[in-house]
Write a structure and sequence with these properties.
By secondary structure, the chain is an alpha/beta fold. The chain has a single domain, classed as Vaccinia Virus protein VP39 (Rossmann fold, 3-Layer(aba) Sandwich). It has helices spanning about 10-15, 25-35, 55-60, 75-85, 115-125, 150-155, 165-175, 185-205, 210-230; strands at about 40-45, 65-70, 90-95, 105-110, 130-140, 160-165, 175-185, 230-240. Strand 4 (about 105-110), helix 5 and strand 5 form a beta-alpha-beta unit. The termini are far apart. This is Methyltransferase family protein. One of its GO terms (molecular function) is methyltransferase activity. Keywords: Methyltransferase, Transferase. InterPro entries: Methyltransf_25, SAM-dependent_MTases_sf.
C-alpha cells in the first residue's frame, strides 16, 4: 500500500480541494448557537483537512482562537498558507486521537469514523473546559429499506454506518448527552462534491490504472449520493458530558 502522500493516488485526487467532506458555514453557526459560544472561545478543529471550516468557526466566535490539527502534511500546509499571519489560528500536524489543550468547543467534521464515536468522545473529554462541548458529523442511514446500490456503497466505505438512534446510543454510552442534532443538507454536500467532480474530470486524461481506480470510486460515491440522497447522509451532533 502506498503511504507516501506525494505519490498516493488518493491524495492526488484530494489535493487542493477546499474541503475534505460535506459541510457549510450554516452548520457551524447552528452548532455555535446551541452553545451560546463566547466570542473569545477556545476551539479545536480536529482533522481539519485544508481548513474548510476555520472561517466559519471564527465567524461564530470572532475573537476566538482556533487550533486546527491534521496529520496529513499537505493539508496542514494548505491550512497554514490560508491563515498565515492571523493570530487567531494555529495549525498543527497532529493525530486526532491526542488533543493536549483545553477547549470550549471541539469541532470534527466527518472524521470521527476514523476512530469511532465512542472512542473519540471518551478520548476528548479530558480536553473540554467546564461547559465545553463537542460537535461532530457522522455518516448516517435515514432509511431501513436502502437501495442495493447504496447498500453496496455503505458496506464498502462505511461498514459500521448506523442510523440516528444508533449514533445517539453511542453518544450516551460514552457518557454524553445530546444538545442537538441536524442532518446536513444538499448545500453542504455540494460544497464538497462539486469541486471533487471538477478534480475528477481534470485528472482523467493521462491517469494511470491506480489513479483511474481512485477516480472511478470517487465518481461512484458522488453519483450514488445524488441518486439516493434521501437514504443516507451526515448527522451533525452537538454533545456535552452528561
Amino acid at each position: 500500500m502506498n503511504t507516501d502522500p506525494s505519490t498516493d493516488p488518493f491524495f492526488a485526487l484530494h489535493r487542493d480541494l477546499p474541503r475534505e467532506g460535506p459541510g457549510e458555514a450554516a452548520d457551524v453557526a447552528w452548532a455555535a448557537s446551541l452553545l451560546g459560544l463566547s466570542a473569545t472561545a477556545r476551539i479545536a478543529d480536529v482533522a481539519c483537512g485544508p481548513g474548510g471550516d476555520i472561517a466559519a468557526l471564527l465567524a461564530a466566535a470572532p475573537q476566538a482562537h482556533v487550533t486546527a490539527l491534521d496529520k496529513t502534511p499537505h493539508f496542514v500546509q494548505a491550512a497554514r498558507e490560508a491563515w498565515r499571519g492571523d493570530g487567531r489560528v494555529t495549525v498543527l500536524k497532529a493525530d486526532m486521537k491526542v488533543i493536549a489543550n483545553p477547549y470550549d468547543l471541539i469541532w470534527c467534521a466527518g472524521a470521527v469514523y476514523f476512530i469511532g464515536v465512542g472512542a473519540a468522545l471518551r478520548s476528548w473529554r479530558k480536553s473540554l473546559l467546564p461547559d465545553g462541548a463537542i460537535a461532530f458529523s457522522e455518516a448516517c442511514r435515514f432509511t431501513d429499506a436502502p437501495s442495493p446500490r447504496a447498500q453496496a456503497l455503505w458496506e464498502k466505505e462505511y461498514p459500521d454506518m448506523t442510523d440516528r438512534q444508533g449514533i445517539t446510543e453511542q453518544i450516551e454510552a460514552a457518557g454524553y448527552r445530546v444538545l442537538g442534532q441536524r442532518r446536513l443538507n444538499d448545500t453542504a454536500w455540494e460544497a464538497y462534491y462539486t469541486p471533487l467532480d471538477a478534480r475528477i474530470t481534470a485528472l482523467r486524461d493521462g491517469a494511470d490504472p491506480a489513479l483511474r481506480e481512485v477516480l472511478d470510486t470517487a465518481a461512484e460515491e458522488v453519483a450514488c449520493w445524488r441518486a439516493h440522497r434521501d437514504e443516507y447522509g451526515y448527522l451533525l451532533s452537538v454533545v456535552a458530558p452528561a
